[in-house]
Write a structure and sequence with these properties.
Layout lengths: L1 H29 L2 H23 L5 H6 L7 H19 L1 H22 L11 H19 L1
Length: 146
Amino acid sequence: MKELWIFIALISGAILPIQAGLNARMGKSLESPVHASIISFAIGLAGLLIYNIISKNQISWAGIRSAPWYAWTPGILGAFYVTAIIMAFPRIGAALTFGLVVAGQMLIAILLDHFNVLVAQQHSMNIWRFFGVMLIIAGVIIIRKF
């Protein structure tokens, strides 16, 4: 079962540059990265609503009311991410854009793991985790130079 989630995570990561390229095209057509982000989120919302209706999932209204204030911020973070990618992708290219995205994700992820913030299980920083992130950063530097 763990292998399935590893595969799903890999595929979801592989989809991001495709999504970015398509969003950048939409941004160019609309002459606005913000409008392209709005369209992207609206279509995503429609897709999720259709999935929710088909799967007959019920929204937990009690859960919505009990969520802490900071649990509402991912939508803003997602909007920032999508808009920033729409702007960066055509200017610095797919490889550098997503190399930097992955490097940023890994830097924050190992800190969240180490300090046990927003994670299910704490994982302490060690030399191998640090070395792994440094390899990713080295890869970004190589992509940037060549």
